[in-house]
Specification:
single chain, mainly alpha, 9 helices
Length: 159
């Protein structure tokens, strides 16, 4: 509850400046529901498969193949972009496989809810990266939210 509340607290700046809009918020909450759904399905699937990395590989292959075909058909510049940026594309794919594979592997060794909550600490790292490298202004409310996510993750680990 602390982790979830702290993530919602990250939107407090929008509440204070009256820039919080319903449509983007509803889409974000719908997206959160989809993330919950695929996290549970993938966690159960990785456990049932017996090999989280094999499961991850098949999931990525079965997802990427149709998307790539559609991109080749609908966007002629897609091929040129892949050729030009092949090393970046390859590195991004490796990072995607590694990060999700590790998360699914963790779900085969720990409760799915625990791993899912711990993954949400990426909000903390995203905010730190935005502040340091992108020079974004981080309000005191966001620092409070980051502390809340961190405390929540520690509480989950200790429970």
């Amino acid at each position: 509850m602390v982790v979830c509340s702290s993530i919602v607290l990250l939107t407090a700046d929008s509440w204070q400046t009256d820039t919080l809009r319903f449509a983007p918020t509803a889409l974000a909450l719908a997206n959160a529901g989809l993330i919950v759904s695929y996290t549970v399905v993938d966690g159960i699937g990785a456990r049932a498969s017996g090999d989280a990395f094999s499961y991850t590989g098949w999931m990525i292959l079965l997802t990427v193949a149709p998307v790539t075909i559609v991109c080749f058909i609908r966007r002629p510049q897609f091929t040129a972009s892949i050729r030009t940026n092949f090393s970046i594309v390859l590195a991004g794919g490796a990072c995607t496989f590694g990060s999700y594979g590790l998360a699914l592997w963790a779900m085969t060794h720990a409760p799915i809810a625990l791993v899912a909550a711990l993954r949400e600490t990426s909000v903390v790292f995203g905010t730190i990266i935005a502040s340091i490298f992108l020079q974004e202004n981080v309000s005191p409310m966001r620092y409070l939210a980051i502390m809340g996510v961190t405390i929540g993750a520690i509480a989950i680990k200790l429970s």
